[in-house]
Amino acid sequence: MTDLIRKGEGQPLRDAMKRRGVTQAVLAARTRAVDICGRGVSVATVSKVTGSGGTAVEKCRLRTAWLIATALDEPLQRHFDMPSVSTDTVER
Questions:
Q1: Would the pTM of this model clear 0.90, i.e. be above it?
Q2: The dihedral of CA 72, 78, 82, 84: what is its sign?
Q3: DSSP state of 73
Q4: Helix, strand or coil for residue 35?
Q5: Are the C-beta atoms of residues 5 and 58 closer than 8 Å to each other?
Q6: CA 5 to chain centre
Q7: What would the mean pLDDT of 38-65 be, rounded to a whole number?
Q8: In the Cβ-directed half-sphere of 58, how many Cα atoms lie within 13 Å?
Q9: Which of 16, 32, 36, 79 has its CA 20 to 30 A from that of 90?
Q10: Distance (Å, whole) CA 63 – CA 45
Q11: How far, in Å, CA of 31 to CA of 19, rounded?
Q12: Is the pLDDT score of 37 beyond 80?
């Protein structure tokens, strides 16, 4: 399972939410609308991914990142980076 790392401690996500005039609850609802399965991302998870402070997370699943970026109508790469390759997993 691939995890993505949010850019700028989530500030680009918060900026996009502000531009679009959406709260975390509205963004969570929008993720359900763009999810083919209709599940979307919970408000709690949106809060962790877009938030700041002690409850925020720096990584999230690819699916979560994709749903959030799509719900914001923004490119995934604007808000998330792929983790760097660990030398422990590189074949020699």
A1: no
A2: negative
A3: T
A4: coil
A5: yes
A6: 8
A7: 96
A8: 6
A9: 79
A10: 12
A11: 17
A12: yes
